[in-house]
Design brief:
The structure holds 2 protein chains of 2 kinds. By secondary structure, chain A is an alpha+beta fold. Chain A contains 4 helices and 7 strands; from the N terminus they run E-H-H-E-E-E-E-E-E-H-H. By secondary structure, chain B is of the alpha+beta class. In chain B, helix 10 packs parallel to helix 18 and helix 15 crosses helix 16. Classes of the chains: A alpha+beta, B alpha+beta.
Amino acid sequence: MNLQYNGQEQIPADPDTVWAFVNDPDKVGHCLPEVIEVTVHDPRHFDALVRVGVGPVRGKFRMKFELQPDEAARRINMKISGGGLGSAIDLTAGSDVVPAPQGGGTLLNWSGEAVMRGPVAAVGGRVLDAQAKKLIEQTFANVRTRLS
Amino acid sequence: MTIEATTERHSLGHRMKRKEDPRFLQGQGRYVEDIMLPGMLHAAIVRSPYAHATLRNIDTAEALKVPGVVAVITGKDLEAAGLGWLPTFHGLDKQMVLAIGKVLFQYQEVAAVFAESRAAALDGAEAVEVEYDALPVVADPFTAKQDEVILRPDREKKTNHIYHWEVGDRDATAKALEGSATRVKQRIWFQRCHPAPLEPCGCVAHFDTMGRLHFYVTSQAPHVYRTALALVTGIPEDKIHVISPDIGGGFGNKVPVYPGYVCAVVGALKLGRPVKWIESRTENLTSTGFARDYHMDVELGADGDGRLTALRVSTAADHGAFDAAADPTKYPAGMFGVVTGSYDVPVAHAEVDAYFTNKAPGGIAYRCSFRVTEASYAIERAMDILADEVGMDPVELRRKNFIRKEQFPYKSVLGFTYDSGDYHKTLDKALEQIGYQDLLKEQAEKRARGELTGIGFSTFTEVVGAGPSKHFDILGIKMFDSAEIRIHPTGAGIVRAGTKSQGQGHETTWAQIVAEELGLDPQNIMVEEGDTDTAPYGLGTYASRSTPVAGAAIATAARRIREKAKKIAAHLLEVGEGDVEWTDYRFQVKGVPAKSVTMKEIAFAAYTNPGPNEPGLEATNYYDPPNMTFPYGTYIAVVDVDRETGEVKVRRFLAVDDCGTVINPLIVEGQIHGGLTEGFAIAFMQEIQYDREGNNLNTNFTDYLIPTSLETPHWETGNTVTPSPHHPIGAKGVGESPNVGSPAAFVNAVVDALSPLGVRHLEMPLTRDKVWRAIREAEKR
């Protein structure tokens, strides 16, 4: 099952601060909703153990994260893969980190694509779509809270 | 000692209550899950979330740390032991037991975990870490046909194409179609569905101290399992004891040998302890034998009077990742050649091309005799489309083209010899019973008010009872079946057969056949099946073959007992054998009714006073059927469709079946009720869907529906009796007719309801949203 998302998030902090934040694996890792544990391997790679509850699929997913920043374009891309409970998830996400045109601070223009496999995919459009959207929004909300 | 004459001798045709039911109704059935052995371990299987991926690494370290976990095995371990692959049902392909190198379908078996409890085994399975590299997924046969991604590099032929099968005259059919006054063509898909028996598959493997394997398993064919296990593992066949205890429904799903069984046997051997493996509902729906998945291009031609001129069917079959279709070895597309149905088709051609896809393997018969349901659905649907094209009542089109009763035995152009039938009689009986003229009148009135109401017919013919040894085998083993009967001194007895009941009522039916042949009380004829140490070798129960094949073996063995009994009767009556005759369920001196002996008296004498005869009273028969049997029927569905919501209400459904001689009408009606309920589910609810990534989207009973009593319509039944001329008691088998015949009746009724809007065909399952969309789209036109 293929899911696509995009949106915008305004952060009340200057772009340099936000850029440094999203390039810090430990900080980004702890913004994930329901995160249990973050293990940083190097400035580009970290693992996160997160609690997941999608319909009947409930338990812990182990996810591997790779940060792929493009300094010149001020764009941060992320490759995420992992899973648990017999399910597998592959995600690619990216965001421009640019000054907000209005109201000050920084605008994150983000988009992402997820491929779900296993029982989590069988849960299907009924709950998965809304759940995934909620998780992404929660992640950005956490970024905002930490930088406010 | 006096022996009373039996009171219920005449047994055939009696509505005898099922002997097995008190046991089942009181929860006293004994299933594989009930088997508990000392020191028994439990197995759980790690499955792939990917439909197609390279297997990079399996890390079992964490799993082995889980409390209670004893061992984990992977494909590499099995490959090292020479057990990496398992031959599929017909032996034409092999299947990975546990993934080796790559995975080919979602939920494929990747590793097996053995633990002290089922919970520990499941926790262990969750802790096994598997790394995959995703590969492109092929999720349908048409993409597979392009050969852009080759799924099975292990095979010699580097293509996704598995086989091409055809029958009939291609050129003559093309010519006849070209010359026809009317031609119709329709792509008809019989969707992938799953038999979903309420008891999923499972087994217990146990090696005793002498090294003998006792294998308790949910198998519809225990003897075939024993031989397959001997061939695959190299264990001598005398050291293998297969026991099929009570089975909670099979419907073809419990015919193949599954990887979990092999893992349990390997685990028991390696660990020296019994191993139980019971799959979950999700595992049953996602990895064991599915049914159907035939994409059929059907073409019918007719002359100006609506008489059929030709039939052509071209099929793409989706077999999944391994060719594990359960069909006789020489018949890769099963009995699909019966696609000419009940009609006198002058020329025809049928072909099937099968492909590998990244979906679960299978292609088993879901309560059907090897692809008969697909064939029956295709022709019955096409007949309605043709009727619409030529503007004829579908009943009249069928009547005009029926094989006439004087044409039997009828040789079809696609190679079957239909044994017997009177299609017109059965149709007329059904029309009268349902009140067809009144229904037509009512439909006209409803249509005048703008209501959507439909009447759908299916006048199907099945081919069952595989089968004659010159054509039918599985892995070379001929498709005979067998019976052994022993009559005890007091006139009670035991029947053992090579078949295996999964709810069909053999304990009653087999006793009734013996009782009828020997004049004994069926209540005191015990039936035993499923234990390979005691039952004679048989090919098992599926494809409606039990009554046509094993039923014939039982009747034949009983007649052998009667021949011997005649000699003992002559001794007791002190006359020559030639002066004794079997009359009114006893032997009497010809023309002297007062001088007679009952079978009960003869049984006692067989052990106490056999005279010059060998003591004892028993017989065995291995029955090789001379032909298949051809049960048939007329099914009529009446539906109302809600124009606003797309909801279909099956207002009436009548099934008039002809299965030849009826042994027990109560059991036959029960079989028909059950099969119609499954046919209803297929027509309106059931489909195993996959998305483009090969995710199975129907993995449990909230997404794959089983009708309850609330949804199930009221079934009306009737019958005619046209005995099979070659079966010892004239019986044809009935278990599958309702599943084979009913889907077309339901769909034909819904399409008839929507025909005023110009709808001519809809694909199953006819869910509300699909019907609603069809109405909305038709209204736009």
